[in-house]
Amino acid sequence: MSRIAGRFESLRARGRKALIPYITAGDPEPSVTVPLLHALVEAGADVLELGVPFSDPMADGPVIQAACERALAHHVSLHQVLDMVRSFREQDSDTPVVLMGYLNPIEVMGYEPFARAAHAAGVDGVLTVDLPPEEAAELVACLKAEQLDPIFLAAPNSDAERIRRMTENGGGFLYYVSFKGVTGANRLDVQAVADKLEQIRGHTDLPVGVGFGIRDAESAAQIAAVADAVVVGSALVTRIAALADRPGEIVARAPQVIADMRAAMDRA
Amino acid sequence: MTQTRRTDESLPLTGLPDARGHFGPYGGIFVAETLMEPLEELRLAWEKYGQDADFLAELDHDLAQFVGRPSPLYHAERWSRQLGGAQVYLKREDLNHTGAHKVNNTVGQALLAKRLGKKRIIAETGAGQHGVATATVAARLGLECVVYMGAEDIQRQAINVYRMRLLGAEVVSVESGSRTLKDALNEAMRDWVTNVDNTFYIIGTVAGPHPYPAMVRNFQTIIGREARAQVLEQTGRLPDALIACVGGGSNAIGLFHPFLDDDGVAMYGVEGGGYGLDSGKHAAPLCAGRPGVLHGNRTYLMEDQDGQIIETHSVSAGLDYPGVGPEHAWLKDSGRAEYVAVTDEQALDAFHALTRTEGIIPALESSHALAWAQQLAPQLAADRLLIVNLSGRGDKDIHTVAALEGIQV
Predict the structure, then answer these.
(1) pTM beyond cutoff 0.90
(2) % helix, strand, coil for chain A, step of 5
(3) pLDDT tens-digit map of A79-121
(4) Cross-chain Cβ contact A104/B294 below 8 Å
(5) Is the domain of B58 the same as that of B85?
(6) Which structural domain range is residue B38 located in?
(7) Which of B164, B217, B243, B245 could link B169 by a cystine bridge, Cβ 3.0 to 4.6 Å?
(8) Which residue of B has its CA nearest to A175?
């Protein structure tokens, strides 16, 4: 069983929902990332999503675009991101790590070399925003050969056939994008999400995580009531951005938003 | 030069792309999931109306009565004599309404938007020509129009920005990334993903996710279809070579495509060589880049060793783009077309040469194609024939040219 599947199974046994924070690797500078990942686990994260910075993050709103720009100012490459995961694994062999990003850096490294290196570093899943299932066969095969879970994004306008295809090819969990838009927008509609999740669950036993638009403890708790996992990106990255000129304070202060969400989710 | 070189005779050239938008390994659909549904809606509409007699009749009417087609194929006799070799013919896309080939595509896509009942049009623009052509058709059809333009390009192309605003479009300044065309495209995609239900995205070139590269090509092949008939009528023969500038590549594919099966016709796509390929400051992904994935398709890109897209440079804002249409990537690999680069300086030289010998002020984009003709024609006998796509007029560029020459206009 993959580390992600094992984590969801043990959470389910304890009646708990997964909290999945996202940070961009190397934001605002590379030395912050590994200590911050550990601090997020301390704050209650069950799975970590680590963004691979890209120059043209087409699906992201201004908050994560800016995070990519801060990381790229330090020339953070996919190789370095894998080094960060390897370093994180020295002290944490339990918490699953999912890489999230765009296809081109992986194309440049090559699918097979990337999958081998990611597995060796201790990565568990790979989510590629601009790779729909129609184009994904080759990368999916390479990931699966290295026991990595390919994680697909489903959207409000994904029809049954597309969801079936994603769940057949994907692993770990299915990431449901809560609205039509870019990351960080304020358009969350909990009832609409609940309705769509019911439809998705008719097609798959994979856990379903929900992301986009979860900005505070209240919305995290509302989504946790209907989903298997809550993914939080821009709300956390906003805290990091506010401390970008005081990077020494990020590890101590930014994870508080995750701790608050954890508490609200567990109370519900 | 009369015989074209094909590196692999087994590679098909026509009948592409395949059902999912592939030109060999290039093209395809690489977008966030939310865009899959609108792209499918667009593909179905394009396939339906592309065969629909009423739609095609309306398109033909608009191209004739609104755009002013057919555009002339003009024998540049004086310039040809001065070059002392092949005869140069210019396909006068600069004479279209709005001053460039871009309108051939925006007229077509706007008619599709109307059929789909979309009330809001968005577009990206670099030099502003596509933005103006989009704002123009939106004004004519009474549709809301938002144009994304890099902050850097807004500085360089102030006149086109004002034209778009006169036409009723909202011009949004894009401040992210390199603040040029690629960032405008990112921002337009973000708008589209947010407003898919009421918005039609008119992409201005033969790049982006399927069906855009094929659809935009089909709207632009009017250039090559006319040119082929005109050259046969005027000279009784096919040309020896076609020359067109390549940014995203829509004017080039529009000229090339109807000649792909004419084996004796060579094709040259001319990229923006900037300060020279060795300088690294250029916009020539086919000459000096490598394949990757950006903006919804796999194609040649300007990127660094980590797969980050790098900033491009060209004197011409319309060529200042790090990618290129996937069909050009395929024509390059297949050997059917040859891709070359000319520098800013060579393009400016050709700009002045055409202006002074023929009384035609060409766009800086088109001046790159002219610069290649300037190099090629003298090597050929006087009975050889070149067609250069004069894709746009240069009025929009006179401030740029003046500034480069230290003149205050």
Answers:
(1) yes
(2) 50, 15, 35
(3) 999 999 999 999 999 999 999 999 999 999 999 999 999 999 9
(4) yes
(5) no
(6) 22-64+102-216
(7) B164
(8) B33
CB contact under 8 A, A180 and B292: no
Average pLDDT score, chain B: 95
| CATH value at residue A57 | 3.20.20.70
**Look-up: residue for tokens 């009421």?**
B198
Decide if the complex's ipTM is over 0.85: yes
Residues of A in contact with B30 (CB under 8 A): 103, 130-132, 135
Does A146 participate in catalysis according to the annotation?
no
In this structure, the answer to whether residues B209 and B109 fall within a common structural domain is yes
CA distances (Å), origin B328, targets A152, B78, B103, B217: 31, 32, 21, 11
Domain boundary among B186, B216, B246: B216
Domains in chain A, number: 1
Tell me how far CA of residue A247 lies from CA of A40, A45, A170, A234, B173, in angstroms. Answer: 16, 21, 36, 18, 31
Counting the structural domains of chain B, the total is: 2
Judge whether A117 is closer than 8 Å to chain B, CB to CB: no
Tokens read off for A35: 């200590």
A49 given a catalytic annotation: yes
CB–CB contact B292 A104 (8 Å): yes
Structure confidence by residue, pLDDT tens digits, A214-266: 999 999 999 999 999 999 999 999 999 999 999 999 999 999 999 999 999 99
Catalytic-labelled residue, pool B93, B124, B327, B358: B124
Q: With beta carbons under 8 A apart, name residues in chain B contacting A157.
A: 34, 36-37, 196
CATH number of the domain to which B148 belongs: 3.40.50.1100
- The CA distances from residue A151 to A166, A168, A234, B41, B68, in Å, are 8, 11, 20, 25, 51
pLDDT at position B159 over 90: no
In chain B, which residues have their Cβ closer than 8 Å to the Cβ of A192?
none
pLDDT value at residue B10: 52
Q: Which of B22, B26, B30, B31 to mutate to test the interface with A (most CBs of A within 10 A)?
A: B30
Residues in chain A: 268
Give residue B3's pLDDT band: very low, low, confident or very high (50, 70, 90): very low
Does B291 fall in a domain?
Answer: yes
B44 CB near a chain A CB, below 8 Å?
A: no
Task: Kindly state whether residues B385 and B250 are assigned to the same domain.
Answer: yes
